[in-house]
Amino acid sequence: MADRVPSVAELASELLDRIGEECSPAERDVLQSLASGQHSHVHTGLGAPTTGERLADKVARVGGSWAFIISFTLILLAWMLLNTDVLKHWGLVFDPYPFIFLNLMLSTLAAIQAPIIMMSQNRQSQKDRQDAAVDFETNIRAELAIAQLHRKVDLLLDRADVEPDGRRG
């Protein structure tokens, strides 16, 4: 015997303990897909990343690592050492203290790197939102399956005339 597919309102009442109008749009979408018996297509993916997106991900991965911080610190120290002591003997100092050119380069790097890292973070948050939507749908589906199993067990117990504590009625 085929099970009757419950309506969206019935699912909302049964699974979420509220009426359909109180559900969020995401909850309604999941309940609608459950009522129709089809999986919703929540996880459509982000598609193949563009060259710019791949570059942003690499910049974020490298720029947020200890290897970058340590190597960049060593480069800055070498720059300052060269421009204060080493090149001073030959009169070749190209960026004397207070290192104005170095400050300009650091400001330029920060101005370019920050939005690139933000692009990568935006992509990651979009992935996280999609994963959360898939997890939500999975949880609702699991709740429905458990509720259906409870109904079937209750039906079997009623047919066998057994009380919920296991005693015969």
Characterization of the model:
The protein is mostly helical and 169 residues long. The chain has 2 domains: 8-43 and 134-160; 51-124. It has 5 helices and no strands. It is rod-shaped. It starts with 7 loop residues before the first helix and ends in a 9-residue tail after the last helix.
Strand content: under 5%
How many strand segments?
Answer: 0
Output the number of helix runs: 5
Name the structural class: mainly alpha
Residues in helices, as a percent range: 55-70%
Tell me the span between the first and last alpha carbons.
27 Å
| Quaternary status | single chain
- Backbone CA Rg: 31 Å
Q: Please mark out the parts with pLDDT under 50 across 5 or more consecutive residues, or reply none.
A: none
Order of helices and strands: HHHHH
Average residue-wise pLDDT: 83
The coarse silhouette is rod-shaped
Defining traits:
169 residues; mainly alpha; 2 domains; 5 helices; rod-shaped; membrane
